[in-house]
Design goal:
With 908 residues, this protein is of the alpha/beta class. It is 14% helix and 30% strand. It has 17 helices and 65 strands. The termini are far apart. This is F-box protein 10.
Length: 908
């Protein structure tokens, strides 16, 4: 009969009455019939799949509300899996025709129950032949001694699951066996209801209640659609390969699955078949499908972060948009920097400028001459690029884009070790299982190996406790009372594309030399996202870590990971490093409530090529006894760019500290009541900050205490990321040995104040570019030890270039101080002013006041040739006294307390 002779809808109604064998025969008639049979996926194939007593919903137990991509394919996979236990016959080496005519095994069916051939299970097992089926009729079967399976056999419960219960302890002493549709409960003499040490057992649609399944290598196990409840567990010792698929574990008193011991060298016949089944699961390069999306969309995510996707797209964000989103406008328009700032007396020209042209920070006249500032600090970074665009140091807006995180596939392509881990199938494979409401999920110890794929861990004390090796791909770990994943004792492994969220402690806890590869979504935790401590290491890369109540990544007690992630929208610091924590830190850290990076108490990381931006507080906080190499970072935030406390020893090299609403770099005493008051938001016009975001020193101390409360009990190019993943020795060999905090080759532009110093310890500030800040370029308000300002370029700041208050010890040497709207240098302290160029400032070149004690020195500098002709001027218009052969010395009289008449810097 032709298919086209009837409407397709009518054919589907007719074919819905056919059983499975007849559907298969119809599918082989022709292509048109095959397409017609395949079109029954959501009707007849669905009925057949759900009507099979040995087959539960394909997405049971974690997502039974979701339909599979194909009901027919799900039924096919079930049929193939149920026959795995019979595929242990000898391989035929003869011709294909003999294989075709191979005789099938003769199988008998035995019935056990009241009124049947046998009333007891032991009686039936005494007479069964190889591969016979024993059908157990509804009832409870109890044995008072251990039962041995000595020939391959299939035990099947008749009726619905739960109608056949076994109170037995079975030991398998044969190559293979299958148990289906049974409920196992422990007998009075043992909690172990089934064990094997060399054969293969297949468990389909069985329940374990308060019982234990025990598999010892080279024995193997395949469990599908089974429930382990009321303290039941699976214990696998030295297994080469076992597969637990679509199982439900609940109410465990210890770990639901324990994998112990290294895989034994010997293998049984089932290993190759289990390996084939393991490869049918989607490859690790595919997108996660098991709850990988966060709960709800995040709003207000500057920079285009949408956590529900695998990739974070770039979004162009102007400083105006960011200010509107974060409420920064009020801060920028009315802070102490503009309304309450005082750096000494102002010149008449400066006062006129403030009254008449408050918004104009440039000179209203054309200078007739100037000394070029090309050779000072980093002023070359102000020159337009070849394409005409402005570099970051001279751009009025922060960088419009941040780097995107790499996908797992990209991480695997550049890491052969991770590729090998992703492809490994050794030990226990758990996939599509649900672990809920118990003490633990999976425990690996004594070199046991496991692969966890597509599982859900919910409401446990902990999800995974890994002592050695594991691979975790696309799992959901949530609502654990302690940390989600513990890694211990040099544990290796790949933990990738998991959705780890809403846990009571850290999402991942890494310690005791553990060194895994981490690439996940870690969010919404009640404490930190990732904790690395106790010599823990790890490559924590391309994670999206967001909305955690405490630090996104917390490193302490000699933890030393490589960290390269997107860390955003956290309720505390992005990364916290203290208690001698280290690490290589290369991240995008944005929109966090507290500091982007917080370093304290011996913390000594390398922060390189980070984007620390759009935070509601400070970018980097270096607290008491903090150290670290802070190099090549982009820092622009609502508070300070970098906040350094006394008793710390950081190295700041080559950073872009720009567009921060308060100070670019602030160096403060650790305890300073006045400073606390200021940082709490009591400045004029400071109301726009509000809350914790505006409290700095006080907030920093509270943050330090709060981070210390982390429960650490055992149970409780756009930038070059990739090039920074060096070995530990390479990381630390690049550091200089310093005894004084060092600030060198940084750009501090468009901040409130470029550099603010109020400290009691020495400081070296070398070769920095400080330009276009809304307040003073460099302000030294307290400096009992020597602060050295050497070869910096300080230009076009709205207030003065350099301000030094009384009793401060400062050395100014070889600086270029150009075109600032106030005085070039306002000096009331003690120290030296040596070989500086102070040119084109609207106030005095150098204003010395009070009882300043200054040594003016000009030690015969070499000629300073003009690098280029000033715009609009011909060589004949240069004043003759500015010959290029030698910089002119100028003598000046100064106020009391100075060495009057001395020769000092070039002041034009």
């Amino acid at each position: 009969m032709e298919v086209g002779s009837l409407p397709v809808e009518l054919w589907r109604v007719i074919l819905a009455y056919l059983p499975l064998p007849d559907l298969g025969r119809c599918c082989q008639v022709c292509r048109a019939w095959r397409e017609l049979i395949l079109s029954l996926d959501n009707t007849r194939w669905r009925q057949l799949c759900l009507g099979c007593p040995e087959c539960r919903h394909p997405n049971w137990p974690s997502q039974p509300h979701l339909e599979p991509p194909s009901w027919r394919e799900a039924l096919k996979q079930h049929a193939l899996a149920t026959r795995t236990w019979t595929q242990n016959g000898p391989e035929l080496q003869s011709s294909a025709c003999l294989l075709f005519f191979r005789r099938r095994k003769d199988r008998r069916v035995w019935h056990v129950g009241p009124g049947c051939e046998f009333e007891t299970l032991r009686g039936a097992l005494g007479v069964v032949g190889p591969y016979d089926r024993v059908v157990l009729h509804p009832g409870v079967y109890e044995e008072q001694a251990e039962v041995a399976l000595k020939v391959p056999v299939e035990l099947v419960g008749l009726g619905r699951l739960g109608e056949v219960s076994l109170l037995v302890c079975m030991e398998q002493q044969c190559p293979t066996a299958r148990l289906c549709n049974l409920v196992f409960m422990p007998p009075w003499f043992s909690t172990v209801v089934y064990k094997t040490s060399w054969g293969h057992v297949q468990l389909d649609n069985c329940n374990f209640e308060g019982a234990q399944l025990q598999i010892r290598g080279p024995g193997t196990c395949q469990a599908r659609f089974c429930s382990f409840s009321q303290g039941s567990s699976a214990h696998l010792l030295g297994v080469v390969l076992s597969l637990l698929d679509s199982c439900d574990f609940s109410g465990s008193d210890t770990a639901s699955v324990t994998v112990e011991g290294p895989p034994v060298l010997e293998r049984n016949w089932a290993c190759k078949h289990l390996a084939g089944l393991a490869r049918t699961f989607p490859s690790c390069g595919m997108s996660g499908n098991n709850g990988s999306s966060p709960r709800g969309q995040l709003t207000g995510s500057t920079g285009g972060h949408q956590p529900s996707g695998n990739n974070v797209k770039k979004e162009h964000v102007s400083i105006e948009d960011w200010q509107k989103r974060t409420g920064v406008d009020a801060v920028c328009q009315g802070t102490v920097i503009e309304d309450g700032w005082s750096d000494g007396e102002h010149s008449e020209g400066e006062e006129e400028s403030r009254d008449g042209e408050k918004t104009n920070t440039k000179h209203p006249f054309i200078m007739d001459y100037k000394i070029p500032c090309d050779n000072h600090g980093l002023s070359h970074l102000l020159k337009p690029r070849a394409d005409g665009s402005l570099p970051l140091a001279s751009s009025p807006d922060p960088p419009p884009v941040t780097p995107e995180p790499l996908t797992l596939q990209q991480e695997l392509e550049r890491d052969p070790e991770a590729q090998m881990l992703a492809a490994s199938t050794l030990g226990c494979i758990l996939r599509r299982c649900l672990f809920r409401e118990g003490k633990g999920g999976v425990h690996l110890s004594n070199y046991g190996q496991a692969r966890l794929e597509g599982n859900v861990f919910r409401g446990l004390n902990y999800a995974v406790r890994c002592i050695q090796n594991s691979t975790m791909l696309r799992n959901e770990v949530c609502e654990c009372r302690a940390s989600g994943v513990f890694l211990r004792l040099s544990a290796q492994g790949l933990i990738a594309e998991n959705n780890i969220h809403s846990n009571g402690e850290a999402g991942l806890d890494i310690r005791k030399g553990a060194n895994p590869i981490i690439c996940n979504k870690i969010h919404s935790g009640l404490r930190s996202g990732v904790v690395v401590l106790g010599n823990g290491k790890g490559s924590i890369r391309s994670n999206q870590i967001y909305n955690n109540k405490e630090a996104g990544v917390y490193i302490l007690f000699s933890g030393n990971p490589v960290v390269g992630n997107h860390i955003f929208q956290g309720q505390a610091a992005g990364i916290a490093i203290n208690e001698n924590g280290r690490g290589m830190i290369t991240n995008v850290i944005k929109e966090n409530q507290w500091g982007g990076v917080d370093i304290r108490r011996g913390g000594d990381p390398i922060l390189r090529n980070n984007y620390i931006c759009y935070g509601f507080s400070d970018g980097v906080v270096v607290g008491e006894r903090g150290r670290g190499l802070i190099e090549g970072n982009h820092v622009y935030n609502k508070g300070c760019g970098v906040w350094v406390m006394s008793s710390s020893l950081p190295q700041l090299l080559g950073n872009y500290i720009t567009h921060n609403c308060m100070y670019g770099l602030a160096v403060f005493c650790r305890k300073d009541p006045e400073n606390i008051e200021a940082r709490e938001g009591n400045w004029p016009g400071q109301e726009g900050i509000g809350g914790e975001g505006g409290s700095g020193e006080r907030r920093g101390v509270e943050g330090e205490g709060r981070e210390g409360q982390e429960n650490l009990n055992e149970e409780g190019e756009l930038f070059a990321w990739e090039s920074d993943l060096d070995s530990e020795d390479e990381r630390h060999s690049a550091r200089r040995s310093i005894s004084v905090a060092l600030v060198e080759s940084n750009c501090m532009s468009y901040n409130g104040v470029g550099l603010y110093v109020k400290s009691s310890e020495p400081l070296n500030v070398f070769a920095n570019l400080v330009n276009s800040n809304r307040g003073t370029g460099i302000a030294v308000l307290q400096s009992s030890q020597l602060t050295r300002l050497v070869t910096n370029c300080i230009l076009e700041n709205v207030r003065g270039g350099v301000t030094v208050e009384k009793d401060c010890r400062v050395e100014l040497r070889g600086n270029g101080i150009y075109e600032n709207s106030g005085h070039g240098v306002g000096f009331s302290g003690n120290g030296q002013i040596v070989e500086n160029d102070v040119v084109g400032n609207r106030g005095y070149g150098i204003q010395v006041s009070g009882n300043a004690d200054i040594k003016w020195v000009l030690e015969n500098p070499p000629p300073r040739p003009l690098a280029s002709s000033p715009s609009g001027l011909s060589s004949s218009r240069y004043p003759s006294r500015l010959g290029i052969s030698m910089t002119t010395r100028i003598s000046a009289t100064v106020e009391s307390g100075c060495h009057s008449g001395s020769m000092f810097c070039s002041i034009l």
